[in-house]
Design goal:
With 257 residues, the protein is an alpha/beta fold. 36% of the residues lie in helices and 22% in strands. It has 10 helices and 12 strands. An 8-stranded mixed sheet has the order 5-3-1-8-9-10-11-12, sandwiched between helices. A two-stranded antiparallel sheet has the order 2-4. The protein has a two-stranded antiparallel ribbon with strand order 6-7. Helix 2 runs parallel beside helix 9. It is globular and about 50 Å long. It starts with a helix and ends in a 12-residue tail after the last strand.
Length: 257
């Protein structure tokens, strides 16, 4: 309890950081789901709302993907029962039910969201300090001007690689023992894309995604909470001194409107 209090407590008396979450459904990866839950328990940030497609949107298109997911999840649970609880996606429907929900439209490929003018106006009216992007798709450019301190997204690889998915087969193929985890800030006062923190962590050499993602995902969770606390405790001027820009030569592909 002492460590948790230290982790979720800021000594500053500034106003709480206003966070808006963007998700493509109620099932989130463990880092984003745990981050949203910890934000609500902290004394330095608060969740304003979640922008998410209606729960019945695209159900037919996702039916086969969900079936395959459940088959792989059942196999992982049988082979690696000790790590499943750390990596299985989390159903955040109950958390979302207590928040203001802003409907957005699902796009293609999966993980991509489309924001109508009314949806963007609703987000802007809430005046979020940070938008936490919780989908596997690219960060839409239209979101970046809407948050005071930009859109934050977890990047489970090096910032220069435009691959948002978790480390799995590439590290095994290349014989790499380490993988990178980064938290990126898109837009904000500095513009462009900046690395908030970055770390290298050990990669489990397994053909199973669940076993492979434990350390990177736990590291990603600590990044989100720690940097929100740092922003609240230090203020923007001191916080910004540690940011590193992502090279323009590795800019992400254009995202849909």
């Amino acid at each position: 309890l002492g460590l948790e209090r230290l982790f979720l407590h800021s000594r500053a008396e500034a106003a709480r950081i206003r966070v808006l979450a963007v998700a493509d459904g109620p099932r989130l990866r463990r880092p984003e789901a745990a981050a949203l839950m910890h934000i609500e328990r902290s004394n330095f940030a608060t969740l304003l709302a979640v922008a998410v497609p209606p729960m019945d949107a695209g159900l037919r298109a996702k039916a086969m993907a969900n079936l395959v997911f459940h088959m792989v999840e059942a196999w992982d649970r049988h082979v690696y029962p000790d790590v499943r609880a750390l990596v299985a996606p989390v159903d955040c429907s109950l958390l979302f039910s207590h928040l203001k929900v802003l409907p957005v439209d699902p796009g293609e490929p999966p993980g991509t969201l489309c924001f109508s003018s009314p949806a963007l106006a609703a987000i802007a009216a809430l005046q979020p300090d940070v938008i936490l992007h919780c989908t596997s798709g690219p960060v839409p450019d239209v979101l970046q001007p809407l948050a005071r301190f930009g859109v934050w997204s977890i990047h489970l690889t090096t910032p220069e690689q435009p691959r948002p998915s978790a480390p799995c087969f590439r590290e095994i193929r290349d014989g790499e023992l380490l993988t990178s985890v980064a938290l990126l800030m898109h837009g904000g006062p500095l513009g462009g894309i900046h690395v908030l923190p970055q770390a290298r962590v050990a990669t489990e050499h397994s053909l199973f995604r669940g076993k492979n993602c434990v350390r990177p995902e736990l590291t990603a969770l600590t990044f989100v909470i720690r940097k929100l606390r740092d922003l609240h405790q230090l203020g923007w001027e001191r916080f910004a001194t540690s940011l590193q820009p992502v090279s323009a030569s590795h800019a992400k592909p254009a995202s849909p409107p």
